[in-house]
Amino acid sequence: MSCMRKTEVYSWRLEARLKETLEGAARARNCSFGSLLARIAEEWLHRGDPSASDQQEQARIHAEAATCLGSVHGGDPRRAAEASSRVKHSLRNQHARRRTA
Description:
The protein is an all-alpha fold. The chain contains four helices and no strands.
């Protein structure tokens, strides 16, 4: 990279804190600010598309979770439709038992 002739200029605004941190990193590596930015950009480009690896990671997580998930089988085809009323009825019964205990 250092032997390549630089012919293009690009500028952008940075927060002061970020610029100071980058300048310190350049000094610590004994290189110019521009060389450090070029190195960072090259490394970022060589890593590839981070969204692709994120998608792969999400697919892996979903596949792993799928081994733990399943469906509940029961004999009542109306269970889902009546779930709310059944939960309310169960809570009322529990509350009533606590009052009598």
